[in-house]
Amino acid sequence: MDTSSPSAFVNGALLRRYIGQKVRTVIQVIGSDTGSVVGKSTDDLQIVVRGPSPTPPLTTYLEVIGIAESDNSIRAETWTNFGNTFDPQNYNELCKLANGEFKHLFI
Length: 107
Fold this sequence. Notes:
By secondary structure, the protein is mainly beta.
């Protein structure tokens, strides 16, 4: 695991804490256009992801690692297809743990 440039686990609500910093999140794809993907975060907020388009075909769920540009947008560096079945509630709980009481366990 590369620890030289860690990224914070975030959901839609936590994104605003990390503007200008590297983050990672999972979105459910709602739509895509040239240069951007619109998705729903694991806590049901809309996030716009900009950057080089992920390699098609897109799956329903994508992990995005990049720089938080605003409270609802990310400039993507890395996209990973997470398939069409994913439990967003579990990921949302992970984000809460990684930014709360157990933050010290995460890079």
